[in-house]
């Protein structure tokens, strides 16, 4: 559904962190061939310069492999020297291979931020052997850019090589008293200069290629606005659901605050109406004031027990009447005046409590409620 919704939309949004991580898992990371060429050539040059003092001994060891005494048979010596030459080439190659391998790994880490091993990148992809897909890749913008990069690189390297040779040709062929070893030494100097110039050119090309690779990688991973929204829904949930959860959380917090404030107001109540324990409603009324009694707190079950305990500790009079307690609980609201149909019943109860608190001997009143104010424990009107 998400794919269909995003069809026809332009990919204008930068890739999200989840999209970047998914691409990295699939082996799709920014990479620069030119940076690899520059770094390996630089390390190779440094190794060459560092191993220059060892060259005479290496050449001597190499030349010894072509010396045959013939005392134990020429063929035996040939086979022995051949095996020794393979070992010589192998271990000397390792000296160059290990540093180059390390610099390749470090170069990729510099490009992608970490070593990335992806098994999915090694998986078989049928489109790679599809001729139509191959032709499409050959004539793509990426292929055109790669071709232009290759032409530009070759042009720059050939041009710089010609400039170096033109600048040093006089020193190579016109120096007085030129001899073989002196000529070879000067050619070595020119070769070293040429490598250094190549490195400078490749460094400039690498900077361009790294910038282009990161730009191209980012463009390939760009997302449509719908894809960003769908991903947000998958990771964080639907905005509608999140809004509903926030509303429920805010309501719960608000109710908790109201309940706390109501419980703190219970000690100031005039009376607590119970039935006798399942429901409890705390009322407040001051004689001579305008308006009806106000509901300070109410609850059922454990909350009702808490209201009763707080009221007892504060010396609040508790009046037990099952129907009145239910009517106040189901028809009233905390912080509001009691419902109008209950004025008469509550007034009778408060008058009884007032006289009781004044040490008068009075009988409990007969509380009569309207038919529509008689509730059962579930809040349904008793018929």
UniProtKB/TrEMBL annotation:
<feature type="transmembrane region" description="Helical">
    <location>
        <begin position="190"/>
        <end position="212"/>
    </location>
</feature>
<feature type="transmembrane region" description="Helical">
    <location>
        <begin position="35"/>
        <end position="55"/>
    </location>
</feature>
<dbReference type="GO" id="GO:0005886">
    <property type="term" value="C:plasma membrane"/>
</dbReference>
<protein>
    <submittedName>
        <fullName>Flagellar biosynthetic protein FlhB</fullName>
    </submittedName>
</protein>
<feature type="compositionally biased region" description="Basic and acidic residues">
    <location>
        <begin position="8"/>
        <end position="25"/>
    </location>
</feature>
<keyword id="KW-0472">Membrane</keyword>
<dbReference type="Pfam" id="PF01312">
    <property type="entry name" value="Bac_export_2"/>
</dbReference>
<dbReference type="InterPro" id="IPR029025">
    <property type="entry name" value="T3SS_substrate_exporter_C"/>
</dbReference>
<keyword id="KW-0969">Cilium</keyword>
<comment type="similarity">
    <text>Belongs to the type III secretion exporter family.</text>
</comment>
<dbReference type="InterPro" id="IPR006135">
    <property type="entry name" value="T3SS_substrate_exporter"/>
</dbReference>
<dbReference type="GO" id="GO:0009306">
    <property type="term" value="P:protein secretion"/>
</dbReference>
<feature type="transmembrane region" description="Helical">
    <location>
        <begin position="154"/>
        <end position="175"/>
    </location>
</feature>
<keyword id="KW-0966">Cell projection</keyword>
<keyword id="KW-0282">Flagellum</keyword>
<keyword id="KW-1133">Transmembrane helix</keyword>
<keyword id="KW-0812">Transmembrane</keyword>
<feature type="transmembrane region" description="Helical">
    <location>
        <begin position="89"/>
        <end position="107"/>
    </location>
</feature>
<feature type="region of interest" description="Disordered">
    <location>
        <begin position="1"/>
        <end position="25"/>
    </location>
</feature>
């Amino acid at each position: 559904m998400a794919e269909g919704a995003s069809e026809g939309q332009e990919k204008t949004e930068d890739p999200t962190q989840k999209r970047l991580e998914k691409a990295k898992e699939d082996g799709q990371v920014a990479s620069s061939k030119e940076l690899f060429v520059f770094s390996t050539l630089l390390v190779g040059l440094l190794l060459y310069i560092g191993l220059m003092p060892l060259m005479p001994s290496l050449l001597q060891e190499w030349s010894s492999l072509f010396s045959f005494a013939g005392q134990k048979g020429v063929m035996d010596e040939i086979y022995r020297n051949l095996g020794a030459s393979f070992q010589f080439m192998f271990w000397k190659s390792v000296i160059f291979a290990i540093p180059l391998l390390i610099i390749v790994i470090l170069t990729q880490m510099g490009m992608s931020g970490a070593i990335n091993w992806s098994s999915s990148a090694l998986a078989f992809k049928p489109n790679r052997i599809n001729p139509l897909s191959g032709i499409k890749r050959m004539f793509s913008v990426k292929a055109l850019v790669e071709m232009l990069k290759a032409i530009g690189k070759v042009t720059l390297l050939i041009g710089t090589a010609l400039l170096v040779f033109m600048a040093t040709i006089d020193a190579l062929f016109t120096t007085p008293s030129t001899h073989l070893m002196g000529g070879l030494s000067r050619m070595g100097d020119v070769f070293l200069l040429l490598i250094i110039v190549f490195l400078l050119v490749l460094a400039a090309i690498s900077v361009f290629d790294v910038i282009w690779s990161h730009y191209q990688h980012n463009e390939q991973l760009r997302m449509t606005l719908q894809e960003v929204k769908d991903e947000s829904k998958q990771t964080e949930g639907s905005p509608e659901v999140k809004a509903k959860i926030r509303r429920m959380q805010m309501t719960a917090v608000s109710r908790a605050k109201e309940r706390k404030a109501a419980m703190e107001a219970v000690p100031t109540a005039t009376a607590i109406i119970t039935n006798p324990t399942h429901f409890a409603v705390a009322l407040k009324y001051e004689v001579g004031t305008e308006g009806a009694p106000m509901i300070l707190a109410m609850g059922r079950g454990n909350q009702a027990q808490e209201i009763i305990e707080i009221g007892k500790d504060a010396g609040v009079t508790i009046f037990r009447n099952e129907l009145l307690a239910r009517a106040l609980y189901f028809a009233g609201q905390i912080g509001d005046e009691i419902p109008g149909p209950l004025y008469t019943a509550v007034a009778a109860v408060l008058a009884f409590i007032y006289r009781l608190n004044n040490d008068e001997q009075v009988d409990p009143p007969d509380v009569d409620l309207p038919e529509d104010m008689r509730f059962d424990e579930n809040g349904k009107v008793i018929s």
